[in-house]
Amino acid sequence: MEDIIKKAGVLVEAIPYIHQFRQKVFVIKYGGSILDDEKIRRQVFEDIVFLSYVGIRTIIVHGGGPHITSRLKANGKEAVFHEGIRITDKETLKIVREELENLNKQIVTEIKKLKGDVTGLKGHENIVYVEKKKASLDLGFVGTITSIERRVIEDHLKMGRITVVSPMGISVEQQPHNVNADEVAGAIATSLEAEKLVLLTDVPGVMKNPHDSTSLFSTLTIAEAEELIHKGIIQKGMIPKVQSCVEVLHGGVHKAHIIDARMRHALLLEIFTDKGIGTQIIKE
C-alpha cells in the first residue's frame, strides 16, 4: 500500500509542471552510444510518449555518429575528422544520408510501438537550410545552419505528433549537407522559441568532479557555467554541451537541461519533480 501511495504522491507533484508545460515546445537531442542501447531507447521513448500524452509538443533531434563510422569501416573507408567535424566527401555523404534515414525510421517505428503519435522528418528536405561550413581546410559537404523552416515542424506539433528530425540540411543550390546534430537541435529550439532544450547523455550532468556523482550541479546560471569552463572544471566533451545550452538560452529558450539517459524515467524525473536528477542551466 505504501508503494501505491508513493506513486500517487509523485503524480500529484507532477500536476503543476504538467499544467505549466502543456502546449510548450521541448527539443530533445538524443545520440551517441546511448542511441545504440535498446533498453535505454525504450526508456527514453516511453518518457517522450508520456510528454506527448500530457500535451507537451516534443521534437527529437537524433545523431548517428557511431552508426556512420561503423558503416564507413565496413566499407573499408576511414572516418576522418578535423577539429571534431566529420570530413564529408561525396561517398561519405551518401552513407551519412542512408544511416540517418535508417535511424529516423527506426526511432519512428519504436515510438509507434509504444502507442505514440509520431512523424519523421529529414532535415535536408526543406527543413534545415545551410551554407557550406568554412574551416581551415575543405570539410566537403558539411553545412552551417542559416535558417529553419519552422512552419513545417509546427504543423506536425499542432497535430499532436512527436516530431523526429534527422541532422542534415539543404543549401540554396539544393545540395544536401551533413550537419552537427547539436547545432540542429539548438537552431530548432531557438527558432521555435522552445521552453526547453534537453541534451541526453551518458553522465549524470555537470559535475565538479567527473568521478563523483555527488558533486553534481543541479542548477547553473550562464555566468556560473562560463566560469566553470574558464576554471577548467567543465572539461572535454562536456564543454560543447554546455556551450550549446548557453547559446540557446541567449537565443530565447527558457531553460536547458543535461541529463543521464541511462537512468530510468530520467526525462520525467528532471521535468516533473521539484529536485530533478540532472543539471539545468538558466539565464540568471
Model description:
An eight-stranded mixed sheet has the order 5-8-2-1-11-13-14-12, sandwiched between helices. A two-stranded antiparallel sheet has the order 3-4. It has one domain (20-282): Carbamate kinase (3-Layer(aba) Sandwich), CATH 3.40.1160.10. The chain is globular and about 60 Å long. Helices cover 42% and strands 22% of the residues. It has nine helices and 14 strands. 44% of the residues are buried. A hairpin with a 5-residue loop joins strand 9 (168-170) and strand 10 (176-178). Helix 6 packs parallel to helix 8 (238-250) and helix 7 packs antiparallel against helix 8. The protein has 284 residues and is α/β, with parallel strands linked by helices. The protein has helices spanning 2-21, 38-53, 65-74, 90-113, 150-158, 181-191, 222-230, 238-250, 266-272; strands spanning 25-30, 57-62, 81-82, 85-86, 118-122, 128-132, 143-148, 162-166, 168-170, 176-178, 196-201, 219-221, 255-260, 279-282.
The number of domains: 1
Task: Count up the helices.
Answer: 9
Q: Give the CATH H-level superfamily.
A: Acetylglutamate kinase-like
* Shape category: globular
SSE order, one letter for each helix or strand: HEHEHEEHEEEHEEEHEEHHEHE
Features:
8-stranded mixed beta sheet, Carbamate kinase, alpha/beta
What's the structural blueprint in terms of helices and strands?
Layout lengths: L1 H20 L3 E6 L7 H16 L3 E6 L2 H10 L6 E2 L2 E2 L3 H24 L4 E5 L5 E5 L10 E6 L1 H9 L3 E5 L1 E3 L5 E3 L2 H11 L4 E6 L17 E3 H9 L7 H13 L4 E6 L5 H7 L6 E4 L2
